[in-house]
Amino acid sequence: RLPQDRVQNDFDLMIARGMALLGDWQLPRAYECALRAESLLRDDMPPGRRGAVLGLRGALERALGKTEEGATHLRLAVPLVENETFWYCLVHYFIGLNALLEADAGAVADGFAPVRARHSDPKEILTAVLAQTFTAFAAWWRGKPEEAAALAKEALQWVDIVQDFIEGRPLDALPLSVLAAVHCLWNELETARALADRALEHGRRGLMAGLFESSRILARVGLGGNDWETAARAANDAHRAVRNVGSNESWSFEAGALLHTIHFRRWQSTGNRADFTAVETWLRTNRIGENLGNWPVRRVAGFYCDAPLLLSTRMLIEKEQYDE
To answer: What's the pLDDT tens digit per position in 242-300?
Structure first.
């Protein structure tokens, strides 16, 4: 293990540490590394180095909810990163997230196209599969489940190029989650459950995004079949994943809304007043209506912000507060 002084004063090592922490979704610590790396830049370094650190900083700022700062640094990185490098893929991946964050499903495919095209390079398979997964979910959101399934199956084939040196195929969690969502939409719950279980198994092998997505989809499959125990357990796993990695606005909205939608639906089914009270408390404590009425927040939350607002509206109907 290298001495900390050596790591803290080496540009390449700080960038590498920042990327490792980003991969584990430890965002605040990764951001500290990016800022430290930026402070180590020298005038004689090639432009690609500056592009790399600006790209990493911008990516982390976007993930941490610092939308405008992140967008600025990503734009500055674009002309600096070299086309054939990993950093080109990373920068364009986070630029591609703009459409996702702004809930523009129709623009997602084009936004991610440069990243998805790099799937044959093992060094860029993570960003390529993430981009393909979100493109598939965008198709699902637009009512095109067949297209979503086709994109997911294609991504599973991409992962084959790294299966010999990435043990357990953790990336499989992402396309399997898409397939589970599609079969859940088709009300093929047994198939959806099997796919969601497989996705979760792979997601637990070291990919935080895969763990979150697979837990989220398993919860929705359980909810679709009124399997309250499975739904609540999976939703709590997703919620725990968000807490463990720190700040992520999109995941936080989705995990909280999903968990409390399960409470609400279980209250409807069983009449357990404690579930109804839990939803009331969550909506009030997090000031859902007020916070999600704020456009900058909605931009960061993207597609995930509608579910808590709809749940809030449904609760107001139940309480006959129609004017609100």
So the answer is: 776 555 666 777 788 899 999 999 999 999 999 999 999 999 998 887 777 666 666 65
Q: How far is CA 34 from CA 59, 60, 86, 256, in A?
A: 10, 8, 16, 30
Q: Left if phi > 0, otherwise alpha if psi is -120 to 50, otherwise beta: which for 321?
A: beta
As a whole number of angstroms, the distance between CA 140 and CA 150 comes to: 11
The alpha carbon of residue 115 and the mean position of all alpha carbons in its chain are separated, in whole angstroms, by 16
pTM of the model: 0.82
Gyration radius of the chain's alpha carbons = 20
Rounded CA-CA distance 14/278 in Å is: 43
Q: Residues 2-55: pLDDT tens digits?
A: 788 888 889 999 999 998 888 777 888 999 999 999 999 988 889 999 999 999
**Contact criterion met (CB below 8 Å) for 73 and 54:** yes
CB atoms within 10 A of CB 93: 25
3-class SS of residue 283? helix
Alpha-carbon distances of 214 from 207, 266, 282, 324, rounded to whole Å: 11, 22, 23, 35
Given a contact cutoff of 8 angstroms between Cβ atoms, the answer to whether 174 and 130 are in contact is yes
